[in-house]
Design a protein that fits this description.
single chain, alpha/beta, binds farnesyl diphosphate, Undecaprenyl pyrophosphate synthetase, globular, 13% strand, 6-stranded parallel β-sheet, 44% helix, 6 strands, 263 residues, 9 helices
Amino acid sequence: MLKKKNKRDIKRFSKQELWSIIDHSNLPKHVAIIMDGNGRWARARMLPRVAGHRVGMESALKIVEVASDLGIKVLTLYAFSAENWRRPADEVGALMKLLVEFLKRELISMKKNNICFQTIGRIAGLPGWVQQQIKWSIEQTCQNTGLILNVALNYSGRLEIVDAVKGIIKDIEQKGLELDKLDEETFSNYLYTADLSDPDLLIRTSGEMRISNFLLWQLAYAELLITPTLWPDFRQREFLQAILEYQQRERRFGTIGKLAQSK
Ligand code: FPP
């Protein structure tokens, strides 16, 4: 484990150095990422916003690769929120096309690297041609046992909770689910992420200090890592830095922590 006094050096390490310093027995099981800053990246270069999304897609491909190589169990990427429909129609259209391009390019690597593709969100609200590609990617990779690549599409954390409550009420009425037996674990089983562990680490790029309606229930105990790096510049080295920084944190889950215990 990296000594505290060397923390400042994290930014200077190469990808290979980071790889060798990381404690591979103490990886976050589930990493969730809010990929933000594509528009600002493009504006800084006087390019259209879509150019930022395109380079952002390249970042996503690179991060999936390193997460899989590292042995992370679940990677959740926030690609399109339920609020993103409010963007100009041409940007929304371009994002849908990029998503399909991402899935087509990723399919080859998912098959090669044993990656299982999943989604969360209201997929039925996406255009038919996008749904078709999603379905194909899921079918083609659902037997894979390595990294779960979970992409949030037409996703809203509040709507997810509303959908869970609807599912619970239906099961109370039709399947005899007992209200008194409803606890946190049962509630979690009605979320889109029922089969996944909660994220251990949330990364948000571009310096914004908010969670933007993402995994509201599941992030309860996640370590938050906000980096000023814009998503198109966030590549494998930055991801490994984030993992190393996560490993410097003490996760307390409401307890008093190791330092206080030793006093
Ligand atoms: C936020 O940047 C990014 C998005 C809304 C879209 C994310 C999409 C990609 C990275 C490309 C496709 C990737 C996959 C995995 C399908 P922003 O536009 O809000 O940036 P800004 O805050 O600087 O304007």
